[in-house]
Amino acid sequence: MAYTEKDKVTQERLVSIAADWYGQMAGGQVPSITLPTRTKANIEYDAKTEVWKYGSKGTTRTANSAKSALHILKMAYVVGFLKQQLNESRSSTLREMYYISEGWKRAKFAAQDESNMLVEDLEIVTKLSREAFHLRPEEDGASIYGPLHLREQTKRGNRDIHCQENVGEAGYPIPSNVENIKFLDHDASFIIAMETGGMYARLMENGFDEEHNAILLHLKGQPARSTRRMLKRMNNELGIPVVIFTDGDPWSYRIFASIAYGSIKAAHMSDILVTPAARFIGVQPSDISDYNLPSDTLTEGDTAALKAILTDPRFDTEYWRHQIRLQLEIGLKSEQQAFASRGLDYVTKEYLPTRLSEMGIL
Amino acid sequence: MAIAEKLASQQKSISVAEFFEKNKHLLGFDSPTRGIITTIKEAIDNSLDACEEAEVLPDIWVSITKLTKETIRIAVEDNGPGIVPDNVPYVFGKLLYGSRFHQIRQSRGQQGIGISAAVLFAQLTTGVPARVISRTGADKPAYLFDLMIRTEKNEPEIIRKEEYNWDRTHGTRIELEFTGSLAAKRRLIDYLKYTAVVNPHARIQADIDGEWHSFERVSDEIIVSPQAIAPHPYGIEFGTLKRMAAISKDNVHEFLITGFSRVGLKSADQMLKIAGIKGTRKAKGLSSEHLKTLLAAMQEVDVPPPPASLCLSPITEEMIVQGLEKEFELDFVKARTRKAQVFSGHPFIVEAAIGYGGKLDQEGQALLLRFANRVPLLYQQGACAVTNAIAGINWRSYNISQQSLPIGPILLLVHVASTNVPFTSESKDAIAAIPEIEKEITLALQDLGRELKNFINKRDRNKLAEDRARAVCSIIPDIATKVAEIVELPPPDISPIEGQIMRRVVAKKKTEDGMVGVSVTNYTRKPIEVMVYSLSEDNQEEAVPKPDFIDVIGSEFNAVWRITIEPESAWKATYPGKGRGTIDIRGVDEKMKVVVDLDGIY
What we know:
The structure holds two protein chains of two kinds. Chain A has helices spanning 5-26, 66-87, 94-100, 112-126, 197-205, 208-212, 225-238, 250-260, 270-273, 285-290, 300-310, 318-330, 346-358, and strands spanning 32-36, 43-46, 51-54, 58-62, 92-93, 135-136, 143-145, 148-154, 157-162, 172-173, 181-186, 190-194, 214-218, 242-245, 279-282, 296-297, 332-333. By secondary structure, chain A is of the alpha/beta class. The radius of gyration of chain A is 23 Å and the shape is globular. Chain B is an alpha+beta fold. Chain B has four domains: 16-215, Heat Shock Protein 90 (2-Layer Sandwich), CATH 3.30.565; 238-300, Helicase, Ruva Protein, domain 3, CATH 1.10.8.50; 317-456, 2-Layer Sandwich (Ribosomal Protein S5, domain 2), CATH 3.30.230; 502-597, Immunoglobulins (Immunoglobulin-like, Sandwich), CATH 2.60.40.10. Chain B is built from 15 helices and 24 strands. In chain B, helix 8 crosses helix 9 and helix 13 crosses helix 14 (435-487). The model of chain B has no long low-confidence stretch (mean pLDDT 84). Classes of the chains: A alpha/beta, B alpha+beta. Chain B: Keywords: ATP-binding, DNA-binding, Isomerase, Nucleotide-binding, Topoisomerase. Chain B: Homodimer. Heterotetramer of two Top6A and two Top6B chains. Chain B: One of its GO terms (molecular function) is ATP binding.
């Protein structure tokens, strides 16, 4: 990777954090840094971009306690490391940086979580993404399958790929840096993103993609940043509608929220990661009784999570309040594969077409 | 023979000695291990009481020797006034023989049972007579006695009595042989330690089977022995009144005034009026009926509480603190002596102390030290009013965790001094649940609890300050180095930051836009008075505020300001110039000051 103009800007922003600390200390002040408070209580809806972002509440860390001083020291080491990495046009993964910190004596990370949090803090302060720091994410992107033709710029040259015709049954795996993809052409009328691999395979086997010109996307649980970025770009640049198909339980609704509203952990990245137009197709709590789905009773943890959702500002809509209250009332949850109880074709022939036409997509 | 007659032939009086021989547990001799502690306790109580009465500083020597696998010899020796030879056999060889039973004042022993019970116990287990040596003065010989108790008669039996060549000028020594073991050694040492805590005027030395323990004297103040007082009209029992009246030669009016404490002319008149008895009648001649009405009338009239300062001798707050500090290493110790109060006509004083931290056990329940009339209570902690009162306090409100008793490195001392300590039993292990006493204990400990809370809060704050200081001393220099490396500049001077966090006085000089600023910030907790010296080529005559003194040495101006700065505030002077020269402050400790020239940094 060559040292680009973009890298220069990144480096300047990182160094300016250190320069602030330098100025504070030279002026006889204890070094400090102010960051937005990263909790549910401090995310706000931005009407212009239609996504949830951090609000105005800030937390200042001042190095006048051992804990905070150590935090700032670690941050300084990360800034120093990233500056050098940009200088040398190298890149590394978060995990690699975690191991590199072994040599930082006192500033070494106690756990991977800590380095992740620090990098997120730096993203917030610099208003840049970790990719700009030349930090590659660890997690795999999910896979897609459907009528989409794209060009991926790889380290070994450009590759043109059709995500239906020249990929295997596993589909096209989304690379970690989605910015390296150029969309060439598509013939899709909507994208359906699914929580489980079983449903992804079911739709593929039943030929749902061909029958409805759909792009199938496997979220692999809580979606990685690259998956969310891919969804955002397909929706934004190609104008393809996005629907999300998950299990009918509180943890799955949070998957939907992180795609459509933004996650609390990465609210500073909402602008590039969130697809506000994404819509929830199911499994809806009302489906459980409407389709008489096989179900499990809610655990204590499920009930608590549902109640927490009722106080989550992202879910403060008529639709969600109704569905969550209904689920608390019936006390049941169902998996998306529960439709199999009515035959393997039921989900592709009956449920999804019905829901899609209800939503005005088909 | 009729049953009644048959029974009558078996009915006979029982001597008190025989009774206690069968009921040893009532006196604290229920097991051989406990017997040793009770014996030493009784002997030391007697020694301390005797020394107090004679107004000498007690020197007590205790020795415990293992003679065979099962027999132990105990010896306790004191420097007290001694006992006249004629009385020695009765003091040690007759139960219920004593000088203090009929007196109303605070003393350790009361009934005259303790030491003779020990003699009885020794005689029961080994059959070896008790040996007593006593001397009442340098001009008198010492006598040695070998004594036993005739249990069926409760009378002493003198086995041997002879003059003895003793190196002490006055004092008493008792030797007893028991069957028993040293299993309770730990508790015995505790007993000695606790006794030393509440008797800081005593020196106690103990040789426990070759193990030497010494509890030094911390106070040379001789304790004034409490005086006996007349009984108080409140709470006196009918029998006592009847006995007192029977031996009186006065008329009833005089009898009430002289026979009872705090009864004056007026209150005596009132009592007689209510009872409907003429004051001129002889007290001796009153019938039981009359005495009963008089007793009732006595309870109705307002009489001030008994003169506690005369008959009670509290240890005092200062002495408790000294005693605890001597025997325990503590981070915090505070004591309270409450005002005298009364229950059922008996005056009492509650004293309490709380110790915290130091070498006390960090976990587990608080260490509880209970005392009654300066005697440690070692057994039946659970049945004691002291324990009750402590468990009834909400310790959590003083930031102390609690499981019935408080938990943590805490020591609680409670001393109840009274002319009549209400024990739950004759073995004097636990104080009975008297509401008046429990209330006083609670109030004393609550007061101390608040002080402990303040101490803990302050200590936590200091801990926080230490934490901050550590961060500065070790981490901030690393931050400075790393940050300087990133911005490619020399490391900044972090001494003012240190001054701020370490709570010191920081003097700074900084020049900006042709104006030199000299500032002094007081980060300490106290106001400071300092002299600020500024030596510079810049003309400081135009400085604001004006220097108190200015001197020109060659081309340099030497300006001096004398200033007072309140805690957490700053003083500043400015003058036009280039910022050459140096500054310094005087009037604060070198360790407390930080002087920084910010003009030399960039």
